[in-house]
UniProtKB/TrEMBL annotation:
<dbReference type="Pfam" id="PF14698">
    <property type="entry name" value="ASL_C2"/>
</dbReference>
<dbReference type="GO" id="GO:0004056">
    <property type="term" value="F:argininosuccinate lyase activity"/>
</dbReference>
<dbReference type="InterPro" id="IPR000362">
    <property type="entry name" value="Fumarate_lyase_fam"/>
</dbReference>
<dbReference type="InterPro" id="IPR022761">
    <property type="entry name" value="Fumarate_lyase_N"/>
</dbReference>
<dbReference type="GO" id="GO:0042450">
    <property type="term" value="P:L-arginine biosynthetic process via ornithine"/>
</dbReference>
<dbReference type="InterPro" id="IPR020557">
    <property type="entry name" value="Fumarate_lyase_CS"/>
</dbReference>
<dbReference type="GO" id="GO:0005829">
    <property type="term" value="C:cytosol"/>
</dbReference>
<dbReference type="InterPro" id="IPR024083">
    <property type="entry name" value="Fumarase/histidase_N"/>
</dbReference>
<dbReference type="InterPro" id="IPR009049">
    <property type="entry name" value="Argininosuccinate_lyase"/>
</dbReference>
<dbReference type="Pfam" id="PF00206">
    <property type="entry name" value="Lyase_1"/>
</dbReference>
<protein>
    <recommendedName>
        <fullName>Argininosuccinate lyase</fullName>
    </recommendedName>
</protein>
<feature type="domain" description="Argininosuccinate lyase C-terminal">
    <location>
        <begin position="367"/>
        <end position="434"/>
    </location>
</feature>
<feature type="domain" description="Fumarate lyase N-terminal">
    <location>
        <begin position="10"/>
        <end position="302"/>
    </location>
</feature>
<dbReference type="InterPro" id="IPR029419">
    <property type="entry name" value="Arg_succ_lyase_C"/>
</dbReference>
<dbReference type="InterPro" id="IPR008948">
    <property type="entry name" value="L-Aspartase-like"/>
</dbReference>
<comment type="similarity">
    <text>Belongs to the lyase 1 family. Argininosuccinate lyase subfamily.</text>
</comment>
Length: 464
């Protein structure tokens, strides 16, 4: 194909506007799909041979030529020409340069419309597999730390106010479970990537007796799409990937926000390692948690990518429209960002130092007010009444400017006759933790059960 000549240029007599040419050209983005595009073309050539549209010699020449094209991409020696609008035209142009006339027969019955969505599905399948592996590494790091630091106690927070004592391990596992659910959600998307669109043509189907099922299986798909119009216009899997990516970004952002707060002098619960911190150009004493701040910031940008692409989809009529070319920028950018912050999160969590003494020093007996209410419930007091009585104990402590555990037994009895000497056992943080024996609680037994279940899940997926 001559330099500057378009595959579709036969009915055009006027050159394309330079600005449109620049916007229309997607090769800088979709060259990332070169392996998938070549893989699909090789399998399609074999399907054409089966129905007699290619001779055995022509098919072998095409496959040999495509292998050469892949070698050039692999070694970063592929020479992109100005006529290469996208990865499909680039590969076809180079194939013709290498093998001549047989290359011009490869596109019969096929369209860039069904090529590009096939390429995207193939790329996303392998990319989700790699992403899920990194998510499991992060979950494993959280679980490993939870197991190692299971006995460290710390305040649990609601509304960012001290609420009840919990185990540090229980806190870590709250994110392990969240990310485990994220992993399961994004890997479930693989099922929706199981139907091959190749053979759908531009929108009406393939006029030649291509065995789409056999072609799909050769490419690793388990089925074929059932409607050619739906197939070429479908980008729901891209939207779902962007949504799940944004949710993972949100969860990592929340973890980062917690650890940023916990690493301040005001909290002092953790110290971010020097390998995941930076300094100040002006203030020598500073150690800034830039790894966590970048995770938090990049996590927010993923939500923007998702919203932007959903808006693109809302405005497009059925089948293929050039608007759908925006899928690659959104998906590739989100994937790269997400991979970077998943890996950075794992490194930051793995290397941070836990200041257990600071965690436990932050506990205060007012956090046991709920336990006081539970004490009364066990004495037969209705919970709402017990809650009110515990509140009066808190008020009495405030009025006397003492912690609630410093009130005399007589002070407590003046509030309720149900208080007796046994109430003094309430003022023990370990006892408080250990009362939460129901599944999902912060008792040692429950935390160990969580660890065992998550470790079993990790083992199950170790071969994925």
């Amino acid at each position: 194909m001559a330099e500057g000549k378009k595959l579709w240029g036969g009915r055009f007599s006027t050159p394309i506007d330079p600005l449109l040419e620049k916007l229309n050209r997607s090769i800088d983005l979709d060259k990332r799909l070169y392996k998938e595009d070549i893989q699909g073309s090789k399998m399609y050539a074999e399907s054409l041979k089966v129905i007699g549209m290619l001779t055995d010699y022509e098919c072998k020449q095409i496959i040999k030529g495509l292998d050469k094209v892949k070698e050039e991409w692999d070694s970063d020696k592929f020479d992109i020409k100005s006529s290469d609008e996208d990865i499909h035209t680039a590969n076809e142009r180079r194939l013709k340069e290498l093998i001549g006339e047989p290359a011009t027969k490869l596109h019969v019955g096929r369209s860039r419309n069904d090529q590009v969505i096939t390429d995207m599905k193939l790329w996303m399948r392998s990319s989700i597999t790699e992403l899920s592996s990194n998510l499991r590494s992060l979950v494993k790091t959280l679980v490993t730390r939870a197991d190692r630091e299971i006995d460290v106690k710390m305040p649990g927070y609601t509304h960012l106010q001290r609420a009840q004592p919990v185990r540090w391990s229980h806190y870590l596992l709250s994110y392990a479970w969240t990310l485990k659910n994220d992993h399961d959600s994004i890997t479930n998307l693989l099922d929706k990537l199981g139907a091959s669109p190749l053979g759908s043509g531009a929108l009406a189907g393939n006029p030649f007796p291509i065995d789409r099922e056999a072609l799909a299986h050769k490419l690793g798909f388990n089925s074929v799409t059932k409607n050619s119009m739906q197939a070429v216009g479908d980008r729901d899997f891209c939207a779902e990937f962007l949504f799940y990516s944004s949710m993972i970004g949100i969860h990592l952002s929340r973890l980062a926000e917690d650890l940023i707060l916990y690493s301040t002098k005001e909290f002092g619960f953790v110290t971010i390692s020097e390998s995941h911190s930076t300094g100040s150009s002006l203030m020598p004493q500073k150690r800034n948690p830039d790894s966590l701040e970048l995770i938090r910031g990049i996590g927010g940008s993923l939500t923007g990518q998702c919203c932007g692409f959903l808006t693109v989809l809302k405005g497009t009529p059925s089948t293929y429209n050039k608007d759908l070319q925006c899928d690659k920028e959104a998906v590739f950018s989100s994937y790269d960002k997400l991979m970077s912050i998943v890996q950075l999160s794992e490194g930051t969590v793995r290397t941070l130092h836990l200041n257990s003494e600071k965690c436990e020093a932050a506990l205060s007996t007012d956090m046991l007010a709920t336990d006081l209410a539970y004490y009364l419930v066990r004495k037969g007091v209705a919970f709402r009444d017990a809650h009110g009585l515990a509140g009066k104990v808190v008020a009495a402590a405030e009025q006397n400017a003492v912690d609630i555990d410093k009130l005399e037994l007589e002070d407590l009895k003046s509030i309720s006759c149900f208080f007796d000497a046994g109430v003094m056992k309430i003022w023990n943080y370990e006892n408080s933790l250990e009362q939460y024996q129901a599944t999902g609680g912060t008792s040692r037994k429950c935390v160990l059960e969580q660890i065992m279940e998550l470790e079993a899940w990790l083992r199950h997926h170790s071969g994925v």
